[in-house]
Amino acid sequence: MNEDARTAIVTGGGKRVGEAIVRALLADGWTVIAHVHHDDDNVLDGAVKVAADLTDGGCADAVFAACAGKPPVRLLVNNASRFVEDRFNEADAAEFDAHMAVNARAPLLLIDELARRHAGGDALVVNLLDAKLAAPNPDFLSYTISKYALAGLTELAARALAGKGIRVNAVAPALMLPSGEQGAANFAEVHGLNPLGRGVGVGDVVRAIRFLIDSPSMTGQTLGIDGGQRFMALPRDVQFLENR
């Protein structure tokens, strides 16, 4: 096997940001395992599709089973995310649990499985967070709490796994694509709502991941990509605001 051959796993790799990450990694010569939720979900040509329900406690086994016969896994991108609106006075136990399962527990299980299988050399985990953690507001309550949990996991895993040569970092972008029930007009209005007046794009995340791949001494760090939006201390989620 080519010593330079390497495998990347991207959760939520069939659409939106995940698809862009898969496309970039394929272009860079990686063998890519693109996780999707349903068997009939599509992935880009050249990627290996694996379907798994991230709320299932056995999801890591299912995802890593797709790596059989492939080059060593050197990159895990925890991109998949549950994003459903809830707020105080509407707390729902099932919705909270679902967010935690997808956004925090599944990344934990996948990182743990990577660590068990890792046989040496450099490996990297990139967790997709949210820029709103730097200046939080209570909208999308369960989602936000679960992303705080993922941020904590990033720190703890980086500390625990450095001795094995596994680096764990995060990328925290602001709004990149229309989300939830957000309409096109609202997205166009608030996409550039930051001091730079420059909307964040999926290409910014791709560049950040490539930077982390090429930075072998970086671990336990979060790259914020928000155009300075955190300086504004917005009182609500950006999709509920207008650019003024």
TrEMBL record:
Give the protein family: Belongs to the short-chain dehydrogenases/reductases (SDR) family.
Instruction: Provide the alphabetized UniProt keywords.
Output: Oxidoreductase
Q: Which InterPro entries match?
A: NAD(P)-bd_dom_sf, Sc_DH/Rdtase_CS, SDR_fam
The name of this protein is SDR family oxidoreductase
MF terms (GO), sorted A to Z? oxidoreductase activity
Q: Which organism is it from?
A: Sphingomonas edaphi
Q: Which SUPFAM superfamilies has this protein been placed in?
A: NAD(P)-binding Rossmann-fold domains
